[in-house]
Amino acid sequence: MRKTLVIFLALVLVCGCGAALAAQAVGALREDITFQEHIFSGNPAAADGLTVQLNAGMQHKLNWESTVQFSAQDYRAETSFCFLPAGQAEQPEMSYRGVEINFYHDAATTGSDDVFGFSTAYQSLLDTLSPGESGSMTIRFADYYDEYPFEFSIDLPGVRYETLANWENVSEDSEWLGERAQAALGRYFRIPVLPDEYVELGIDKDMDGKGSARSISSVMDGDRFWMNTECVVTDDACFFWFSNRTDQDKLVDTSLIPGGYGIYMLPYGPLSPEAEASAFYGRNTNEVYTDQLTCFFPVDPETRIEHLGLTPDKTRLLLHTVENNIYYVTLIDCKTGAVLQKLEVSTFDPKDNYVNITETADFVCIQQTQGRICVLTQDADGLYQLALLSEYSPDALYSPVYATVRAMAFDGSRLAIVNNDETVLVNYDNYTKGYLAGSTEALITPDGTYFDNCGFTLAVFDQNGIAYSGAYVSSLESVNYVTGGTLNMDYLVLPDSITLSWQNGAA
């Protein structure tokens, strides 16, 4: 009785959701937390030896830690609860964006007379408007630029340079290291504008006859190119690449880039004495060495790069490519650029397929959306081998390939994937209300649609395809779902983390 009272008071104080909501929440918590099994396909015995650990909480104060263990005969779930009056401090894992290169022609802009080289076009559009009017016009990008205008940002350990768009006006001996670095990147990455790319300009004319609220956006006419980078960061360098293909799958011209197309390396390290003496280095403890920027590993422009990864020890790169409809993973030494291994993984048609790649300390999982999962593991020499190739019909798998919270575990022959999707409960339409019945039974529809925050979906793959797929609905959902209405997202029980392990210790 005392424990129930404590939980009741905690819910009232933390949630502030009213007496009716608190009463319903407490009613759900008076009994042990349970998980209700819903089998989609296969046999649950395929998960024998798997343990799922799921943590959920409310405002980092109310916390439930659930352990679900699978055997050949059944599954067993246990949940512990703790209340932290001061809240549980979040300690996010430190991550770095590396080098980011984007176009600044996409961004909404303010009333400057010189806006990204389009000032003439803006002025001609402005001249057609009356005070208080808004207008737009479509122009050909190549009529205003010979090369794409880029903006750069750098986020590395000890180095943070925010986006700089007007780097062309920066002196090479600028006292601000960030300006010098980004100007060097701008001079390095030069790509001619496509002849058939168009953009739409928009502008508002104020009552004084001046332009404001300028905007630039892409249009569907012609072709388009987006400069998107992917980076991996080691202790002394950032390795990155960008897709060299347009929306119509044509190649952009990378011949002006020193060294051509491929994987680029930007080293970084301690500030030089000159930088330390400068008043413009801010709070940075490191700097980037743009004089050593190089195309570290050249790649044939016809080769399609899918992903760049890093081995757990951060000494080798994992380059995922497609060549002649064959998917390869190439192992590259981070110091020398030497190819240590080129592994043929599977067939792959990029016109009908794309990939989702998960890297763990023990394996690499390549999910091809047309129905193939490949698992790579390392041998004693650090080389990779294809440990599992599982093919299945995508229509047979309910559990989504992509999810808000996800975890994987591989035991050498079986791959377990757990997904946990957060349902947005702020929609008051009739479709959403139909699932807010106050019962976990209502969270799974006859067609298998899953509406759960606190439970999980599980899929187990083996060499024959999907061995098992199912959902496990937590009774904690009764806190989130209330008949006839929705709750504030701040007061929902939401998943914090999911981890998986097999009985033999594989994770």
Task: Describe this structure as you would to a colleague.
With 507 residues, the protein is mainly beta. It contains 7 helices and 28 strands. Helix 1 (2-15) crosses helix 2. The chain is globular and about 75 Å long. The model is unreliable at 1-24, 105-115, 422-452 and 482-487 (pLDDT under 50).
**Hey, roughly how much beta strand do the residues contain?**
35-45%
What does the overall shape look like?
globular
What is the number of strand segments? Answer: 28
First-to-last CA distance:
39 Å
Instruction: Calculate Rg over CA atoms.
Output: 27 Å
Structural class, by secondary structure, is mainly beta
- Taking all residues together, what is the mean pLDDT? 80
